[in-house]
Amino acid sequence: MSPVSSARIRLLEAMIETIWERSYRAASVDAICERADVRKGSFYHFFKSKTALAAAALDHLWATHSKPALDEIFSPSRPPLARFERLIDYWYERAVECQRDHGRVLGCPYFSLGSETAAAEPELTAKVRKILDRYQGYLESALLEAKARGDIKIDSPAEAAACIFSLIEGCSTQARIHNDPERVRHFAGALERLIGAGIPSTTPATAAEL
Amino acid sequence: MSPVSSARIRLLEAMIETIWERSYRAASVDAICERADVRKGSFYHFFKSKTALAAAALDHLWATHSKPALDEIFSPSRPPLARFERLIDYWYERAVECQRDHGRVLGCPYFSLGSETAAAEPELTAKVRKILDRYQGYLESALLEAKARGDIKIDSPAEAAACIFSLIEGCSTQARIHNDPERVRHFAGALERLIGAGIPSTTPATAAEL
DNA sequence: GCTTGACTTGACCGAACAGTCAATTCATTG
DNA sequence: CAATGAATTGACTGTTCGGTCAAGTCAAGC
Fold first, then answer.
1. Which of A85, A123, B28, B84 has the greatest count of CB atoms below 10 A from its CB?
2. Are A210 and A84 in contact (CB under 8 A)?
3. How far is the CA of A45 from the C1' of D20 (A)?
4. Using one digit for the tens of pLDDT, what is the confidence trace for A71-103?
């Protein structure tokens, strides 16, 4: 049961890093093998295809990075609207980190991969869809809680969550295309407006809290 | 001067269609040649490289489709805020058309290509950036006009335009990934909120940060 | 020390990749 | 008609692609 070889993990991480830094296109089997320092035979010992590795890599990224980060950001101990503030900071910090460590703003690997492979890799795209939906679920439940507390006044938390998520991903992809972390920040003001517009005028303090 | 052959145009259109329907990755020289019914020698008679064709194809798409459409949508004869309504309809109609004609929602070819090639094709990405900026310029000048007329109350039309544009592109890419035209519609409500929040008559200016 | 099965290796395959090129067709114009 | 240059053709190059495979190495359990 215990893994006697780290090759599998190295392959997963080489794949996700390459997708993120370059693209799924650039993540050729040879390139992944070289980056992970694994020979091609071993690659196909662990994964039945390149697509299978990519799918496993998405799960691995979610489990090791995205989910823990989201669990912290959307912690129940934080007031629901404050979670969004924290989310904004998180995305911005990551964009700045990216540019420092990789020389480029890289955006969201799920979103880039989803867009790139939507018309070619249905299996992979289905996995991306599930992960994006799960991500959006964090936003939705925070909005639901905020609504229940009377912090905001919106009709459909699900639709609002979809909007906010699209705004985040849109800004993040703009940041990637323009290689400019400040583009991520753009959505901070807009988010305030999207949620803020639903705040009853009697409690303007909650808007400032955000 | 007059074009004695349509091969060049056929190549431009085959390239843009393939990028749009599949991806830049799928747009191999052989695939483009087959789609355009042009032999490989002719390809390299008209274009010095695949990248050069892609860049020319972006210009061609802008000149023949995007610019005319935007000039109509953002016509000075239309009230500034009505232009946004028209823009929403345009994006939604296109998504529905896509699914009918191509079997898939395809999103924005500039945005998809930009995200895909951002870290690999600087020349192409620069062209994408210029086109996206020009697109955003239409939004910005409409917001400026709306502000001058007192229709909305925003601090920075430039930043607001960037937000709205990211929202549009984000929703559109979601629609591509989920192959669901309704995802494009999501931003209609949000857009109303983003702009509407600045309309003095309807909302008592809760968040004027933007 | 023998078996077992996870892991590793590097050579190999056919297809697809971007790009080259010499030879040829074709429409225009002097 | 002859000349010219744009346009076309298909065979070719060297490389990279995803994937296969036979022949191993190696550590643990009997």
1. B84
2. yes
3. 11
4. 999 999 999 999 999 999 999 999 999 999 999
- The label of the residue with tokens 């109609």 reads B93
Q: Does B196 touch chain A (CB under 8 A)?
A: yes
Would you say B58 and B117 are in contact if contact means Cβ atoms under 8 Å apart? Answer: no
User: SS3 of B26, please?
Assistant: coil
* Rounded CA separation B104/B97 (Å): 9
Residue A194 near chain B (CB below 8 Å): yes
Instruction: Check if the beta carbon of residue B144 is closer than 8 Å to that of residue B157.
Output: yes
DSSP B49: S
Q: Which residues of B12-34 are buried (b: 16+ CB within 10 A; e: fewer)?
A: bbbbbbbbbbbbbbebebeebbe
pTM: 0.91
How far apart are the C-alpha atoms of A101 and A95, rounded to whole Å? 10
Q: What is the three-class DSSP state of B210?
A: coil
Whole-angstrom CA distances from B181 to B96, B104, B119 are 6, 9, 29
Name the band, by pLDDT with cuts 50, 70 and 90, for residue A187. confident
Residue whose C-alpha is closest to residue A8's, from A35, A34, A47: A47
The answer to whether residue B131 scores a pLDDT higher than 60 is: yes
Q: What DSSP letter does each residue of B119-178 carry, written as one string? A: TT-HHHHHHHHHHHHHHHHHHHHHHHHHHHTTS---S-HHHHHHHHHHHHHHHHHHHHHH
Mean pLDDT of B12-29: 97
Gap between the Cα atoms of B67 and A167, Å rounded: 24
What's the mean pLDDT in B104-133?
Answer: 97
Structure tokens at B168: 């549009």
Of A91, A191, A208, A89, the closest CA to residue A143 belongs to A191
Whether residue A109 is predicted with pLDDT greater than 70 in this model: the reply is: yes
CA B210 to chain centre: 24
B122: left (phi over 0), alpha (psi -120 to 50) or beta: alpha
What's the average model confidence in pLDDT over B203-210? 36
Interface of B with A in 28-87 (CB under 8 A): none
Residues in chain B: 210
Alpha carbon distance B135, A167 (integer Å): 17
Paired tokens of A180: 């400019």
Give the separation between CA B58 and CA B124, rounded to whole angstroms: 9
CB-CB under 8 Å, A106 with B177: no
Residues 43-102, chain B, CB closer than 7 Å to nucleic strand C: 43-44, 48-51
